[in-house]
Amino acid sequence: MKKIKSKIFSGVALLFLVILILSIIGIVFINRIAQSSRGTIKDNYRSVDYTMNMQRSLDAIYDNIFRQIYKNPSKDSIKRADIKFENYSAEFEKNLDLEKHNITEIGEAELAVELNQNYKEFSLTVSKIKAKNFNAISSEIASLNLSYDQAKENIFDIYKLNINAILRRNSEAESTAENITFYMAVVASVSILLTLFFVISFPGKIVSPITELTDKIKAISERDYDQKLNITSKDEMGDLARAFNVMVQRLKEYEETNLDKLLFEKKRMDAIVQNLQDAVLILDENKKIIIINNSTLKLTGLKEEDVLNKYAPDVAARNDLIRKMISNVMAPDNNEHQEIQPIKIAVDGKEEYFTVENIAVDIKSSNKNNKLFGYICMLKNITRYQERDTAKTNLIATVSHELKTPLSSINLSLKLLDDRRLGDLNTEQREIINSLKQQSTRLSRVINELLDFSQIETGNIKLKFSSIKPDVIIDIGTTALMMQLSEKHIDLQTNIEESLPEIKADVEKLVFVFINILNNAIRYSQSGGVITIDVKKAENEVEFSITDNGPGISKEDQEKLFHRFMQVGTKAKQGWGLGLAIAKEFMQAQNGKLRVESEPGKGSKFIFSVPTVI
């Protein structure tokens, strides 16, 4: 049996063989070009360079001789000329000697010997003229010119001989390169044709069965089980095709066996959903409505045929209740779902309250990633809970108002008892009165919190917005708590940024927030500790922060810190745990923000921000 691995190996081996042949032929041809001019042209260039140097030296000697002959030289001038003649002569003889040892062309050696003889005659004539202090006679000048011309002609002949050799070898190299280019083009064309044939035919033999298998699998995923692979090769693909055909046949049998069960389970699920008292809307992963129960149809006034298999946002565009039910489903995929307040709906002439709940239905797949299958959107009837909550709020408001009257009487009585005009009190009596004052103050704070809470619950928060400087809030708040700060010997450090803009807020409510946070910081700080207040500009807001060095707050407690009737920490409980919840509501009502940053053992930092006056 021929394996796929063997086929791939054969194909790769063919490509490797083509590359190897091209490489060997290229190396052979390049070597031929190199052999045709190796070393020789380089030697010719050297000879040309030597002749150029000799010509310059010869011309320099000749020019200097005649310059000395015609200008009646002094002794110093003659001495300088002798030095130049020696330098130029040494340079000429050096290059002549190099030329003698660099003979590459036929006849070049004879020319070099002849040049040597003519130069000796030229040098001898120059020596005679120098011996006479450059008082040369006409016969000596004629001899000098003759030997100069002959030597110059010899130099030119050597130069011309080497230049012609260079041109001849360059022409031969070009001819060889053209032949090699032709042969390489032929070999490359054959190689390209072989490679193209392999690239076109070979991958098809491997990929075609895989493509066919992919198409069959896609058809099976759409529940079309009448699929069969017609691959008869005796390799791994043939084994895969036979196994695939067996699998398809068994899937088809399984589908036919379980179809009735699936239909029965679907009918049972539909019946359960239809009989639920809560309104239920079920969407698929593409947010199309696949199930809507009778309660939803009754509340929305829609008909089943108008919404089934419709895109939920399209239905929501013409029905407000559906829009509220799917609002969190249609939110961006950042998991920041908006909090939906209870919905009030008139049902059979009676007002009822409902809350929206959305559930994403997903199942873990084999790769441990959650696969989304759809959404369940529900309207839960919370009318009886809402009625109880309203009754509770009314009770709290009534009790709080009723308690304020006797509490005022108690405070007045305590003030009268503390008045020395009614008589002096002993130490024990004064301690009892101070204790009663503390308890009265605590009770007054609880009653005020309950009144504020009842305002929030009923949505009757009354705000009086005004423009105010941030430092006024700091002054009012710190003055109110100066006694608590001095009792615990706490160092209060205030850092207020200069030129802060005015803020738009309800002064009373904002002072409540500041005092509540600062009071908590004092309560949880150690005696002799430090509390820092920072106020700074942040974009279109002014940001207040209060930092203490208390025990800090864990992540778990931070999540429930602003919940109603919730207290965290290890300190003895004071109040009902409404302070921060009310502060949060007050900040939201003023378009502000309130948050906390803390780590256990590293203190806490409460930050609230208020919009500036535009």
Topology:
Layout: H1 4-37, H2 40-69, H3 75-100, H4 108-131, H5 138-221, H6 236-274, E1 279-284, E2 289-292, H7 294-300, H8 304-307, H9 312-316, H10 320-325, E3 343-347, E4 350-364, E5 370-381, H11 383-417, H12 427-458, E6 465-468, H13 470-480, H14 482-487, E7 491-496, E8 503-506, H15 507-524, E9 530-538, E10 541-547, H16 555-559, H17 579-589, E11 593-598, E12 604-611
Parallel strand pairs: 7-9
Antiparallel strand pairs: 1-2, 1-5, 3-4, 4-5, 6-8, 9-10, 10-12, 11-12
Helix pairs in contact: 1-5, 2-3, 2-5, 3-4, 4-5, 11-12, 13-15, 15-17
Mean pLDDT: 77
Per the CATH scheme, the topology name of the largest domain is Heat Shock Protein 90
Oligomer: single chain
Major β-sheet strand ordering: 2-1-5-4-3
Shape category: elongated
Number of strand segments: 12
The fourth-level CATH homologous superfamily of the largest domain is: Histidine kinase-like ATPase, C-terminal domain
How large, in whole angstroms, is the Cα Rg? 54 Å
Residues in β-strands, percent: 5-15%
Per DSSP, the total helix count is 17
Instruction: Report the CATH C-level class of the largest domain.
Output: Alpha Beta
| Poorly predicted segments | none
Helices and strands, in order, run as: HHHHHHEEHHHHEEEHHEHHEEHEEHHEE
What is the number of independent domains?
4
